[in-house]
Amino acid sequence: MSLHDTYPCxxxxxxxxxxxxxxxxxxxxxxxxxxESGEIQNAILGPHFPPRARSVIFLFxxxxxxxxDTFDPKDNKWAGKFIDAVGFGDNQAEMKRPVIxxxxxxxxxxxxxxxxxxxxxxxxxMADEIAVVRSMWCNESNHFPAVxxxxxxxxxxxxxxxxLGAWVSYALGTENRNLPTFVNIGRPSSPVQLTGGYLxxxxxxxxxxxxxxxxxNLIPPKGGVGADRDRxxxxxxxxxxxxxxxxxxxxxxxxxxxxxELAARMQLSAPxxxxxxxxxxxxxxxxxxxxxxxxxxxxxxxxxxxxxxxGVRFIQICHAGGGNGAWDSHGDMKSHxxxxxxxxxxxxxxxxxxxxxxxxDQTLVVWTSEFGRTPWSQNTTGRDHNPxxxxxxxxxxxxxxxxxxxxxxxxxxxxxxxxxxxxxxxATLLRQLGLDHRRMEVNLFGRAxxxxxEGSEPILGIL
Amino acid sequence: xxxxLAALLLPLxxxxxxxxxxxxxxxxxLWALRPLVRPALPASARPGANPVDAFxxxxxRERGLTPLGRAEPLVLLRRVYLDLIxxxxxxxxxxxxxxxxxxxxYEKVVDRLLASEQHGVRYxxxxxxxxxxxxxxxxxxxxxxxHHWRDWVIGALNEDLPYDQFVRAQLTGYRGAARTQITxxxxxxxxxxxxxxxxxxxxxxxxxxxxxxxxxxxxxISAVExxxxxxMGMTVGCAKCHDHFYDPISKRxxxxxxxxFDPLVVRxxxxxxxxxxxxxxxxxxxxxxxxxxxxxKIAELAGPYRERLYEERLAMLPGEVQQVIRKPEKQRTAxxxxxxxxxxxxxxIDAGKISEVMPEGERKRYGELRKELxxxxxxxxxxxxFTVEVDPARALEKSFILISGDPQRPDRAHEVEPGWPxxxxxxxxxxxxVEALSDWLTAPENPLFxxxxxxxxxQWHFGEGLHALPSDLGSLxxxxxxxxxxxxxxxxxxxxxxxxxxxxxxxVTSEAYRRSSETRGERAAPSLTLDPALAHPWAFRLQRLDAxxxxxxxxxxxxxxxxxxxxxxxxxxxxxxxxGEGRSMRRGAYLVRGFSASRDVLPxxxxxxxxxxxxVPCPVRTRTVTAPQSLFLMNSREVAEAADAxxxxxxxxxxxDLGSAIDRAYALVLCRPPTHAEHRHATEFLAGNPARLxxxxxxxxxxxxxxxxx
Lengths: 463, 710
Prior knowledge:
The complex is a heterodimer of chains A (463) and B (710). Chain A is of the alpha/beta class. Chain A has a single domain, classed as 3-Layer(aba) Sandwich (Alkaline Phosphatase, subunit A). Chain A contains 12 helices and 19 strands. In chain A, strands 1, 6, 7, 8, 9, 10, 13, 14 and 17 form a 9-stranded mixed β-sheet that branches. In chain A, a hairpin with a 4-residue loop joins strand 4 and strand 5. Residues 1-43 of chain A have low confidence and may be disordered. Chain B contains 31 helices and 10 strands. In chain B, strand 1 and strand 2 form a beta hairpin.
């Protein structure tokens, strides 16, 4: 029995449905039920126009990467001088702070000649595929609020806004009935990065691990019941039969049957996705698998590519998360070094691999962080948080490569040329996926809620 | 649900005792605010029938819906057990029920369940969803005894504290309205509140104490949102930034209500007797003495190096800055003070820098001393909890509308007087602001108060309220189809003195509650066509077990459910013991709730089964049916261990006879005997091997039937 048999309205858009239901509680439950049942494989909100990208691989560096030491070179003429700075966090006052020198050397890469620091030589080698946006900004200056702002497009948690990946998965549904639409790999800074918020649990991120057990409870615990599992599954089918017949008119039971089937299918398909044994050695090496420093992130990115190949819409990879995030280099910029080394080769490997497979055109890779870092230090050789200017870069998925867009001021403090609020990045992503950010809204509790608020637009300069 | 879409405001006659301001839409337009008049029973009512059924049967007849017959006895037994105490009936209880042929066998079960202390655990948890219980959130200091509030709620339900007292205690700390008394000499003095009702105030204090010791501005905001939705059934919180879109609630109303709570501050209460306090009082002093001694040693060792580094650093700064810094602090002008402050972090000499310049031997000693210092605690902490009290200074402060709801941005041009929507124009605040609200709210003539309560309780028993939005009786949800029934129940609730147990009993002993949920077959077909969403209770609504129901049922069937009542929350993580060690699990109601921006607080199990984190009130849980839920039942360690325990349990309890082991397993998991066909299939599956009882237990825990209340 299909849900359509009892739900004659068929393809009623969920947005409309929620609106009409007048509350959202029931509507949300129903929507989640549909989505999980696999009935909705096509768009709920979109696409609104032909998409350029099929999937997004969203690389989020937790803790705040210094743009000044990576993709936004500044000369050191201000180094050692005290400048008027604005304190962040609890202290918003103007104060004097010493600009610290940038100890990196920058090399111009590829035909485009984009300068990239010696911390990212491999990513640099892919410069012609990359659009560097040097003029990002957001409002929040502490980690958790900024992470929330960067992943939901909103400040604070008053409205339980969903994360970016949840919106995408909600709007576009799945291409693969055996896998979730929104996957997170790696430890996030905040659970908000995974939340489906008011769009419901069914569009929240499913955490995958690049190991034997990609999803919690995916395979039975060792020993115990495991051995007799096949026979037990058969018995389960048989013993379920009578109850299912008795309750065949109930939507919930239909959903339960489907969810069980999906669980069973995931049990078969998900381990294959994490099984790298068929990946040629040279591909694994491209990702840095086999070298201790790059092994972990390399495995995560290879898993990301495999998920993209399987049609997973939004693959979010959180690097160095947990707490404030390891990129948070207040004490000494040197602590960026190992993090760059751990991610540089895998990221470049991912871009190369996608390109070689002809997947880069349809796979949008985004690299970003919750904010950048200040030109000055707090009496250390490290840098403070800087939400007023930072760098994100994009590659593939219809984004022009070899482009530098926007600029910060001469010390790297404020985004001054073509400044882009973090929601502009979201709008860009949506656009490449064939979604109009203005039409991405749901009506709940009598008000329109959206990912991208008025005033934010895609970054057209890189498209 | 489809009927909900047609939510139309019926034209209602004017009148009503409640005041409404000059608004576009009047309070009189809202059905929930109209005076409560007990409707007469329908003429068709059978004598002696439950009045609930009289209303429902008349309504069904009118709509051409044919009610289904009663559910099978054991189906009903499992339903009412899971509803009233959240635990399935044991095989012995099933047998006793089947063999009790007295006409009131079912009523006796209901009375026994309502008298069980597990009833408080079950319904306490339901209330705590609505009252946004959370052990931890962004601001709440964790582990500060908030669970005492949960224990209070559970205890109050178990002693059948009337609903008005239940609410008053949580708002004011007093169950009754008499908070003062007059002495023999004519002085009005405060009556001391009951000592245990202190914990009821955890309701207001929750989330308001910050890690940094400051007061969260969220106390008043959260109080308005929670009280208005939970007890008034009005979404006053919507008017925080704009006048309410649907209901006659203005932004001014919101801030007037918020002003009721503005004078409240949180206070930490140490929960210890005199002797413990005395013993504990010595500890911090001892710790401070040790600390001072250590600090002196460290200063002596590091002093010269610190001074040298400081001088070097200072020499780097511009001359005029050096001059300012060298001035004694008291002689600096305001501008100079600012300069000194700006350069403070530049001149701060951290321990790391000092140890860099120290010779090897001293560096080691310095490190040891510092480590020792870090290891010194502040001296023992006593158990504590948070409560609220009126701060007289704050009570003198004016309250304003906030711009964009931001506590930092009061709109000084718009002062508000304390009050609340739908309340009197000039409330009598002499007994206190919150007290005034509490007295108005719980007054027997307030029609909103019992309507919200009976609708909520109906929702808990029947799966959906008579009004589908239990915390919003405003115009958005329309007028309930069974409005007469709702009004009758509300009037009855008031006349019974707000007794919740008696209301539960009235509802669950109705025929409507006892109906079958099987909507298959010829008898149900016409009704199913007319009302496929069961908007009217002609059949019982099949429901997925809620999270706690799943948790408790799994461990109860395995004989591993720890039924202790009260105490702090637990995280549900399985300790690293091998399976079958006889460990037990506490009830799901005690699983930790909460939110942290930096880590998961809510156990994955609760997230998978649709439990909110408790940041905001949750009047209705979403009920999804998802693949991760199936994966939990199939593959989790919890279910594997329970299956193992259950398999061994039935083997042991059936004395090795596989036939009766199958019967026992069915009774424990599904609360019924297997059918012949099921018994045969199970026997085939076992194939004479008792070791297969564990996989059989796994099969039963994974049956669709187990996951649903039918």
